[in-house]
Amino acid sequence: MKIRSCVGITKPSLLLVHSELPALTFHKTKLTWTSTLRFPSNYERTSGSVTRFHCNVAGRTGASTSVSSSSSKSNTVHLSRKQVKPSSLYSRPSLSNMKKERIANRAKERIDFLHKLGLTIEDINNYPLVLGCSVKKNMIPVLDYLGKLGVRKSTFTEFLRRYPQVLHASVVVDLAPVVKYLQGLDIKPNDIPRVLEKYPEVLGFKLEGTMSTSVAYLVGIGVSRREVGGVLTKYPEILGMRVGRVIKPFVEYLEGLGIPRLAIARLIEKRPHILGFGLEERVKPNLASLLEFNVRKASLPSIVAQYPEIIGIDLKPKLLGQRSLIQSIIDLEPEDFGTVVEKMPQIVSLSNTSMVKHADFLKGCGFSLQQRPLDDLVAFPAFFTYGLESTIKPRDKIVAKKGFKCSLSWLLNCSDEKFKDRLNYDTIEMEEMETMPSFDMNSLMEPRSDESDSDYEEDSDDEYA
Questions:
Q1: Are 66 and 51 in contact (CB under 8 A)?
Q2: Where is the sequence biased in composition, kind Acidic residues (predicted)?
Q3: What are the backbone dihedrals phi and psi of residue 439, each rounded to the nearest 5 degrees, phi first?
């Protein structure tokens, strides 16, 4: 075997391999050398494959051919037959894309959770900041706290529609202090969840702000401190009312109408929702309508004290409807309708069906009543409020057997015990035939018993329907 070589290249310290160059390609260099290797014909099969590569040695370019041998693995460069594409280094998503994906996943999680609570996309759009609340850190702790207080899960949907900001609140810092403050206002623990369900916005109020001033003002005009808890339980919206803009103007207007301040305080104790009647939007227009329908101005304080709801309903259509109905029953003069309203303002809310049944009874029964029983309706319109089957008909039968002729007031305006006593009379005294006495404003200001009637009860606005 013949070997020719030249000395001039020492052991290279760096080899950069480029497999793309063609085999046996030589480049001119400053060092000219050749190396000829001769091998037996069977050497290639026994020693391995020949790998061609292009090397750069210490800044010089040359070409060489090397034999990879299984006996010297440490000095052999193995190249994969498959080339690695440079783009494979960026196969993973960028940090920006990963961040966007995380944000999208969080939003989806929160939207799904809110959907389970009953909220719609429209609800979320009304307060899109709700999507900034973490399900685990915000939503679940707040809802768990409300549930432990006694707020019913069935009310969560409406609760969150009205006050979605509660999901941003801290249970310890924001919610618990408000609940403690409500308990300090003598609202019973069992009533706290009902207060929150009725008025969830209260959880966002400052303790020393509107809540404290509204309560202080009511106590100042005569609302009993012991009644405050019951008042707020019935109508917690008072806690959000500004004294200067809402409560004080309302109280002063009624006082100017002729209702004593203490009587106003008693009305608020019994029906605190009257504070929610808009003074300009509802109260003043309704009183003007009463005057239009021949109610005397001097009677307005008595009417409001007897039936406070009359200043809060859509009154004018009701007045028109009831006047037409009564005129269809009896020959009623316009001023007579004003008298009917003065004597019984609740008539504006009576059911037409009930009134027609009562009137039909009067038309058919006249034997036990005075000669003109329908005319007696003007003097005693409260007739329409008595039960036809439970009270009116049974008493009418008894009086008919006695042969008495009486007024509607004598027949009905007494208790069952008093009625039995009246039946023992041989004759009916004329003073007892007189109609029911007019409303006495002083009855509202009579001293009350020591016991508080602040137990929570739902008042029905449809008691006269």
A1: yes
A2: 452-465
A3: -65, 135
Number of domains in the chain: 3
The winner for highest mean pLDDT among 51-60, 80-89, 101-110, 194-203 is 194-203
Between 186 and 459, the higher pLDDT residue: 186
CB-CB contact of 446 with 223 (8 Å) = no
Q: Domain limits at 32?
A: 1-70
Instruction: Say if residue 443's pLDDT is above 90.
Output: no
* Residue 78 domain flag: no
Q: Which two tokens stand for residue 281?
A: 């939007």
Residues 104 and 62 in one domain: no
Residue where a domain terminates, one of 204, 226, 256: 204
For residue 87, CA distances in Å to 39, 91, 172 come to 42, 7, 53
- Distance CA(80)–CA(83), nearest Å, equals 7
Q: What token pair was written down for 350?
A: 């009576």
pLDDT exceeds cutoff 90 at 198: yes
> What does the pLDDT look like over 355-370, one tens digit per residue?
888 888 877 765 455 5
What is the distance between the alpha carbons of residues 366 and 371, in angstroms, rounded to a whole number? Answer: 7
Residue 165 is assigned to a structural domain of this protein: yes
The CATH number for 119's domain is 1.25.70.10
pLDDT at 427: 57
440 found inside a domain: yes
Paired strand residues for 141:
none
Q: Each residue of 289-315: pLDDT tens digit?
A: 999 999 999 999 999 999 999 999 999
Q: Which of 71, 30, 66 is nearest to 50 (CA)?
A: 66
- Cα dihedral 250, 255, 261, 267 sign: negative
